[in-house]
Write a structure and sequence with these properties.
By secondary structure, the protein is an alpha+beta fold. It has one domain: Ribosomal Protein S8, Chain: A, domain 1. It has helices at residues 13-30, 45-54, 57-60; strands at 2-5, 34-38, 65-68, 76-79. The protein has a four-stranded mixed beta sheet, with helices on one face. It is globular, with a radius of gyration of 11 Å. The relative contact order is 0.23.
């Protein structure tokens, strides 16, 4: 499973958006059925930001569905067709 850990770049909003956009495009093209974005548990602000990013209309076109990992609340799973 492909994964993107946001811990090293969590302080820079532009870098977070760019990293997530590049990661989702790469994951969609790779043919992987599921990929993980790891914002961590923390205060939940970064996870909220990830979910808001994923819910943008132009980003939703890249994947089928997304959910918080039921086994690890610090991870968001993104499913592709």
């Amino acid at each position: 499973m492909l994964s993107l850990d946001l811990h090293p770049i969590f302080r820079n909003n532009r870098d977070i958006d760019l990293a997530m956009r590049q990661f989702l495009i790469r994951a969609a093209r790779s043919g992987t059925p599921v990929a993980a974005i790891i914002p961590g548990k923390g205060s939940g602000q970064l996870q909220s930001r990830v979910l808001a990013f994923l819910d943008q209309k132009h980003i939703k076109k890249l994947y089928v569905r997304r959910e918080s990992d039921p086994d690890n609340t610090g991870r968001v799973l993104v499913y592709f067709a």
